[in-house]
Specification:
The protein is α/β, with parallel strands linked by helices and about 90 residues long. It has three helices and four strands, in the order βαβαβαβ. It has a four-stranded parallel sheet with strand order 1-2-3-4, covered by helices on one side.
Length: about 90
């Protein structure tokens, strides 16, 4: 049997920090911060908090759409859809 990694895509309608804590405790190795509703300042703060959690557990953290936040917070990657960024 091949090894595999569990992957979580966050839901901004839930408690993202708590969901990520639980996910990491249960073996998730990749987190995707997806937030299509909150202001950029809120997303940045969430990313900073998640970076601390994921750094401690050696979990990969990527973000949807926000290349600038990924650079500022030193995230592991960015998910871009076909129409997100030229």
């Amino acid at each position: 049997m091949k090894d595999f990694n569990l992957y979580l895509i966050t839901d901004s309608k839930r408690d993202v920090i708590q969901d990520v804590k639980i996910a990491i405790e249960n073996g998730v190795k990749i987190i995707q911060l997806r937030d299509k509703v909150n202001k950029k300042e809120t997303i940045l703060e969430t990313a900073k908090q998640l970076r601390e959690l994921t750094k401690e557990s050696n979990t990969i953290l990527i973000i949807n759409d926000h290349i600038d936040i990924a650079k500022e917070v030193k995230l592991d990657g960015v998910h871009l859809g076909q129409d997100d960024t030229p």
